[in-house]
TrEMBL record:
Residues 1-21 form the signal peptide. One of its GO terms (biological process) is transmembrane transport. Residues 21-117 form the TonB C-terminal domain. This is Cell envelope biogenesis protein TonB. Keywords: Signal. The keyword Transmembrane does not apply.
Length: 230
């Protein structure tokens, strides 16, 4: 029954968008979570890693490489773990490429430095509101004239919407519309997260953007949808 609710939520979100150019083909099957390095836990060191994955049509990860990292130990944990990830093979799927690439953010210490804990968040949708609040506060303090769209979490989301993997399924016009929708929703998301730091960023994204994240193999976001449906 829980899965039926999840499917209905995603299906309703998809209906809000124009017809896709192609069906989603990247389906996570095995996505273990990176471990928080013991040395950094002892030092109460929070941080993040952004990893780029190149995935083959047989579902295996061809390459997992950190493109941004807060510490070498975090880099090692993420790269070693994400290389083990597996997806449902799409060999023979009409129109699907032999390789695809996605970017996965991993947050060590889900609420940032102000409220250290050892929770590890994987994927955009799984990011805690407490961590987003930490980034919003940093931008407001360091660059008060800067648009909140420059906050890393929002910028990462925009990058996903214009990634090659999403481009395979959506026209440029559709992706621009999603980006505008994200921009318009930022004040609402920030307000909700300020009042609900233990909730997840994905809880407050527009339904159409949630559907895109599910289609980009956001394993953490899929879990978030399941928990929301409970």
């Amino acid at each position: 029954m829980k899965w039926i609710v999840v499917i209905l939520v995603v299906s309703m979100a998809l209906m809000a968008l124009p017809i896709y150019a192609a069906e989603a083909f990247l389906v996570p099957m095995y996505t273990p979570q990176p471990a928080f390095p013991v040395e950094l836990v002892k030092a109460r060191y929070a941080g993040k890693v952004r990893a780029q994955l190149v995935i083959k049509s047989d579902g295996s990860v061809h390459e997992a490489k950190a493109i941004e990292s807060g510490h070498p130990l975090m880099t090692s944990s993420v790269e070693q773990t994400l290389r083990q990830w597996r997806y449902k093979p799409w060999i023979g799927t009409v129109g699907a490429p032999p390789f695809t690439s996605i970017t996965v953010p991993v947050i060590f210490g889900s609420h940032g430095y102000r409220r250290f804990n050892t929770e590890v968040s994987v994927g955009l949708g799984d990011i805690r509101c407490g961590y987003l609040n930490h980034e919003v506060q940093s931008v407001r303090q360091d660059s008060p004239d800067e648009s909140l769209s420059k906050v890393d979490v929002f910028w990462y989301t925009g990058q996903v919407l214009f990634s090659s993997h999403v481009a395979h399924r959506h026209t440029e016009h559709e992706r621009k519309a999603l980006l505008e929708q994200l921009s318009d929703s930022i004040p609402m998301i920030v307000s909700h997260c300020e009042h609900n730091p233990d909730h997840r960023y994905g809880d407050y994204l527009p339904a159409s953007i949630k559907a895109v994240l599910v289609g980009t193999a956001e394993s953490g976001f899929t879990v978030g949808l399941t928990q929301e449906a409970r």
